[in-house]
Amino acid sequence: MAEEKYDFIIIGTGAGGGTLLHKLAPTGKRILVLERGGFLPREKENWDTVQVFQKDRYHTDEEWKDHKGRSFHPGTGYWVGGNTKVYGAALFRLREKDFGLVEHSGGVSPAWPISYKELEPYYTQAEKLYGVRGRRQMDRTEPKASEEYPFGPIKHEPRIQEIHNLLEKKGYNPFYIPLGVKLHDDMLESSKCIRCDTCDGFPCLVHAKSDADVDCVRPNMTMQNVELRTHAKVECLVTDESGKRVETVVYSKDGEKHAVKGNTVVISCGAVNSAALLLASANDKHPDGLANSSGMVGRNFMKHNNGAILGISSKPNPTVFQKTMAVNDFYWGDDEFKYPMGHVQLLGKVNKDMLAADAPAFAPGLVLDKMASHSVDWWITGEDLPDPENRVTLKDGKIHLHYTDNNLKGFDRLMKKWCDILKEIECADYIVPHSLYFRKKIPLQAVGHQCGTARFGEDPKTSVLDKNCRTHDVENLYVVDGSFFPSSGAVNPSLTIMANALRVGEHLAKS
Ligand SMILES: Cc1cc2nc3c(=O)[nH]c(=O)nc-3n(C[C@H](O)[C@H](O)[C@H](O)COP(=O)(O)OP(=O)(O)OC[C@H]3O[C@@H](n4cnc5c(N)ncnc54)[C@H](O)[C@@H]3O)c2cc1C
């Protein structure tokens, strides 16, 4: 195994790793990026619902196991850009209170070691980097921002505007989803985004979605100090004799093992794979896994309580680009329930092929088509709480994921509440639960919002990373993907991962 030496080695190119590369590339330091996937191919199948949703074309065919040893296919993909290649690009800031300790009906959501104010400048940078479109001051739970969104909001289509108006009339506060989509509504002829119906959950064939590949990796990969190796899966990290520094990164490519050295090594493989990599790197000095003196590596895995519903009414819904509106009126609870409930947002428009995989429960063909053409489709998120027993382990080199639902009371109330509201405003004669979006038939598959497996904190006994996301135990090892979350809030996680990567990047660039 030939050895080469770099200033920084970044492992993984998703929301965390890709954004970090963007921050570090201008330093001129020698950077090696190792990514287990390749570039996601641009092909007609990018926008083919059957390929994407029924045949899982862009998901890994790897098998993970649940706590009973049953195999399942996780809803995750390995590409340059990571899961941002298929995400819905809803780019939210956590709420200010999410950074403190919050009492939930199901327990406590712990405080972060940094405040919202400390992360705020990096949220602003991340919104600029990913060109977020939105409008401030419509969402009452929105934290104070130092700047406007870089671009105005993506407008609702007529049916959604109608629902927006109906909700407002009832006293609710619908708002525009902050979106990382390169859409210029007023100049569609020159807009990169063509406002189509294959965005949320699909790769973007015309590269009009702001993702870590298009916005961070590609613009930097031709720089002389940056080297990207794709199809390079990191297998383990080897420390020096003291166990205090990572000396060598071992990866496999084209069936061969390679070793590289880096002054600083940053893991960003996604919360599950980063934990797996630390566990796979156990040695004499770190018998329970690298940087795991706390025993917390792999624990406190979170993925949100998620639900999707179709509100079907007699009125057709010809909306094409549907993911434009959200509601946070119940984020912190309501008059009858004093604990947090969660967040409501529109999904990308559901079509008959997305419903088809659930066909035994419904009538096929025309009926599915009719349902899809009359439905308005919603995504509900509640916070799940960190539980040390919800965890990633490795057995015989295979990922095992143990997860038991928690904190469901507020989430269930929100689901019911939202269904009642849709009926009240006559936007749903009936409601159909829709389980396809994250393929929730086997609930564990739904790992899109994975986080928490190497949380940051002040105390090395209860956390894996310090405030700067450096491992407490190994002085040149950092983690910058969703693993660092001590709690998950109830809005989509990516903007927080990106903002934090910029924050950690600044620290690394200075040091
Ligand atoms: C269908 C879907 C829709 C979503 N919609 C939204 C949304 O609208 N808004 C939002 O905020 N979030 C959304 N998410 C979640 C979002 O995509 C993730 O939160 C985010 O991508 C996580 O970033 P990350 O850096 O932690 O991991 P990832 O983005 O998953 O990146 C991990 C990277 O590490 C690489 N890797 C893994 N293991 C190794 C290894 N051993 N060696 C080398 N490389 C490795 C992977 O290939 C990948 O490139 C969605 C997710 C899905 C699946």
Automatic annotation (TrEMBL):
Domain of life: Bacteria
Cofactor field: FAD
All residue ranges annotated as the Glucose-methanol-choline oxidoreductase N-terminal domain in the record: 7-304
Domain Glucose-methanol-choline oxidoreductase C-terminal: 444-501
Residue positions binding FAD: 234
SUPFAM superfamilies assigned: FAD/NAD(P)-binding domain
One GO MF term: oxidoreductase activity, acting on CH-OH group of donors
Keywords: FAD, Flavoprotein, Oxidoreductase, Plasmid
Family: Belongs to the GMC oxidoreductase family.
Protein name: Dehydrogenase
Organism of this sequence: Fulvitalea axinellae
